[in-house]
Protein: Sulfotransferase family protein
Amino acid sequence: MTTRAPIVFIGGLGGSGTRAVAGAVAALGYYPGGCLNVSNDNLVFTELFKRPDWLRAGPSPDEIRARLRLFGAVMTGGVRLAHLLRAPRLWRYRRDQGPGLAGAPGSIGWMTKEPNCHIFLEAILDTWADAAFVYVSRHPLDMAFSDNKGQLGNWSWLFDLDPAAWPSPEAAQLEYWIRTQKRLDALRERYPGRVYPLRFDDFAGRPVAELTRLVETLRLPVPAERLEPACAGVIRPDGMGRWRERDLSAFSTEQLAFCREAGWEV
Structure:
């Protein structure tokens, strides 16, 4: 185990392909945590941070960073008594989490995949100077027609977005994508070299090449021979390109123009 490897967080809108990307990064030698669901979401992170009511209450930046440091301690050393005093609900994860990274001597470092973690992107990068964030995105119109609209319900208020004010759920979902994308663009300028945008459409089509580029850009200490095997489970999802068969009239001219300007075919 080495502590020189960057900490890697993987997030994005729900249904954007974070599961496949996380599986590949974990296969490179990263420890993903001991408490994962079938989508490879880190359930400890979910427990601590997927809490819209907590965020609505306005925790201070220091409070958010303190919770992130608690999460980091659990990832590297497991759930301890001191952690339970601060967050008793972590008790149910104690056994599965085990000793954390300390119990995975073959790992090169630790990672976290939870789509919602992009909400805390700034705090994550401010908390750990050695952290990098992989932001996974799919074609915005595919995302608009996705049934996975949980983030729209949970976090739209953070982006001054009222879903009910839009002509359809699809239009509201696309607007959520647009506003999160604008925020991402600003954060990439603020944290140069630490926010890596990964288009899942490209990753699914040429996974080894895209994973290689990610590894080289973020300077992950990964042997070259691990790259191809790490991508063995990557498949092209059936829903990719579904927007081509759908009516786009629900979207505004401005929304579609933004998608084109962002480099997506429409």
Summary: The first strand starts at residue 7 and ends at 12.
